[in-house]
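Reader question, answered in our methods column.
A reader sent in the components of a multi-part assembly and asked whether the whole thing could be modeled at once rather than chain by chain. We filled in our standard form and ran it. Here is what they sent:
COMPLEX SIZE: two components
ENTRIES:
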Amino acid sequence: MDAVSIHEVRPDAFNYVWDNSLVPALEVESGEAVELHVRDASDEQIHRGSGVEDVTKLDFSHVNPVSGPVFVKGARPGDVLAVELLEFRPPEWGWTAIIPDFGLLADEFPEPWLRISEVDVETATVRFANGISLPYRPFPGTIGVAPSEPGEHPILPPSRFGGNMDTKHLRAGATLFLPVGAEGALFSLGDTHAAQGDGEVCGTAVEAAMDVVLRLSVRRDFEIQAPEYDLPRGALRQSEESSYHVCTAVGPDLMEGARDAVRATITHLGERYGLDRQEAYALTSVAVDLRIHELVDAPNWVVGAFVPESIFEEGGRG
Amino acid sequence: MDAVSIHEVRPDAFNYVWDNSLVPALEVESGEAVELHVRDASDEQIHRGSGVEDVTKLDFSHVNPVSGPVFVKGARPGDVLAVELLEFRPPEWGWTAIIPDFGLLADEFPEPWLRISEVDVETATVRFANGISLPYRPFPGTIGVAPSEPGEHPILPPSRFGGNMDTKHLRAGATLFLPVGAEGALFSLGDTHAAQGDGEVCGTAVEAAMDVVLRLSVRRDFEIQAPEYDLPRGALRQSEESSYHVCTAVGPDLMEGARDAVRATITHLGERYGLDRQEAYALTSVAVDLRIHELVDAPNWVVGAFVPESIFEEGGRG
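And here is the structure of the entire assembly that came back:
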């Protein structure tokens, strides 16, 4: 990568809302590369020495800061912004929390919980617990452009303009396509994750500050209504070498099915690996993938939760 | 595999309902292997020379026949039946239909549609169309045990005892765990598929009659409330070597999200590969995987539909 061509977003340029009237932190031409210094989702309220009391004290008016916005010259509403993800500079550590009143099973997990994990760059792993190492697979939890509707939009829900998509597949090598909602697109990125499962069920991943390099290009040769992305050959294969244990749920509501599959996974992780319920719930969030197996055999749909057994030093059902 | 030890279910032993009072077609000891001759989901109403008129004429009181039931000695309610999937004998052809009033987008696809695909055993592919070959990945769409509740239960909806799970990952090498609901488990299997995506969105896969060999064992060392399964190392990797284009949907309802992601996929397949809407919908059913990316960033969840580009002779976005 030619370092000279990379434009930097100042570290102090970040926001806690989406708003198409924000003043750009940087202007670039279509096709130029940008580097962003991304703060963690707690905005430094949780640090390497934190205990669970820092989860209790979290100020939610200062979470999920997004670096930017970047104005891309020539981008107009109706265009597509192509975001090529080029590089993530590894962090040294990350955090995972169960935050009261947040997450898929919030009603069943009322107590705060916190885990600090170390990132080992050499082995490309995240040390989640004794005997449990996750593959280090960095991506931005939040990546998007300003919405077309004026005013401030909250940072936590994603929208058709992207935002807090928490989509684990947006790794280096992937290209994300976003519908442009406002002049210049006003691209921002935050909430970088060192590891996460499809679903992010407890509401947090392995949250970690990171520097990110990407390329922004305006496309007019196709239209989209919501985010789409391209994954290079082998990207998915590389993630999925492991053996798996899969807990399914069968029922008439996909959300309840997801909840049931996660409950079964928590039970499985407890029985098979001796994890307590909170640790099992958090591990499900950072390592287990939710898939929709079928949603046509009315009235019951099937959801599967994929536990990769390679994260355990000794795997396999006895 | 030692042919002598395989017990055969008679080809004429099949049923159109789940019922724990059905007379077993076969009794086996725990740990024994069984071979089943599985009829296609249309029960031979659709044949290799069929046209769309055979879809219109389908008699739904004779669909999804399941071979069995097999009584496994010693299996009692509360036990787990482990089903090791050992072998699928390849069919020569299969069918995929859009059936009126059936499928995820039934309201948008009112007309019947039919595609006969040839299976090429040598290349392990299913020839879906000129220029579109799917990997041949056989599995049983319907696999289960008799429910604990007495009486006849319809064959199309799955339940916590398995049934019409349409779970594409249940291939040779996988082990499915089913909660036993009735004395002897009364295992049955049907609806064999030569290829399918996670979701089976149009309601049919590449439907094909097949012979299936598996091993049935009673387990009492753990309990489950719904089906779980184990996948051997590399099984998922092998499926996912391709590059992918992913259409996402962002919104407050997972089912509507899945519908939106499928709609975007149909549009993408039309624009990128020139498929008409019906063919694109059917191809999405047999080749595209639905994943839940996040369901915690209230009020909006993200669903992704994964299009494997390796199925097209010329792939990649221009």
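What stands out: Residues 125 and 136 of chain B are 5 Å apart (CA to CA). DSSP finds four helices and 21 strands in chain B.
Send us your own complexes using the same form.
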